[in-house]
Amino acid sequence: MLKKIVLTGAAGALGSRLRAPLAAMCETLVSTDLAAALDGVADNETYVKADVGNAEEMMALIEGAEMVVHFGAIADEAPFEQIMHSNFMGAYNVWNAAHKHGVRRIVYASSIHAMGMYPKTTRITGDMPHRPDSFYGLSKCFAEDMGRMYWDKYGIEAVCLRIYSAPGSVANARALGSYLSYDDCVQLVQRSVDTPVVGFTVIYGVSNNDRSPVDNSAAAFLGYRPKDNAEEFAEAILAKTPKADPLDKAQMCHGGPFATVPLGVSGVQYIKKMSEGN
Question: What protein family is recorded (predicted)?
């Protein structure tokens, strides 16, 4: 059992589901986010309100940690100045503090948007060059490259989880390949924490989907064995899906709608606006 794990982004959709499983893997879990407080704090869990973009706060928070599970960031496209603070500077602050305090490993929530402009006809692997679709995706490229650099120079291990779709549901045809269930997401993080040696590893955050467009074979040593499969939703989803337009990057690129969202504009709000015909 680890002595101390730090979890950033603990109030988020994914971070909130990781708190209990991570608390069971360590003597002390320190959870952090910008929320005033968290509900259901475990007996061995401490919550500290902190900003990942604040170097001093991260330096104090990470002291004594063996591992950091870094899920704290803006999880959408946004103006570059906002992405710079939370995603670029946040990642730097975490890795720098980890180096200063002798942290063994960082498990990082990367994203498919680091590779979003690749066409879906290309089955992407963990060692292909980045091809981001947004400032958000660019920030994930930066953090991945920094993780590799800190591994090469200082021996800080890193597992970068390129999460494909936000877990929870299969709402469209894209999700038939990109779906990641909450249970599989938790398993993915657990295996990233308890595998004895990981070096620098990139793995895609997808479930065991028949239509998965990514190749996770190089990371099999982590022991991640996803159990859920979006194929059970395929018949219903495809029955209501219009014919694909091969010239529409939103349909043809791994990044989905983010491949067409203007830089700096919220992808969530842009997609909602387009769906409403505005």
Answer: Belongs to the NAD(P)-dependent epimerase/dehydratase family.
Contact (Cβ atoms closer than 8 angstroms) between residue 137 and residue 258:
yes
pLDDT over threshold 70, residue 52:
yes
Give me the domains of the chain, ranges plus CATH numbers: 2-275 (3.40.50.720)
- Whether 278 shows a pLDDT value over 50: the answer reads no
- pTM score: 0.95
State CA 194 to chain mean position distance.
Answer: 18
Q: Any idea what DSSP says for residue 86?
A: I
**136 catalytic, yes or no?**
yes
Strands of the 105-111 sheet, one edge to the other: 45-49, 26-33, 2-8, 67-70, 105-111, 157-163, 200-205
Distance, in Å, from the CA atom of 78 to the CA atom of 265, rounded to the nearest integer, reads 5
The helix or strand, by DSSP H or E, that contains position 154, with its residue range, turns out to be helix 135-154
Please pick, among 108, 136, 164, 204, the residue that the annotation labels catalytic: 136
97: which 2 tokens? 């503090």
pLDDT band at 267, cuts 50/70/90?
confident
CA 71 distance to own-chain centroid: 7
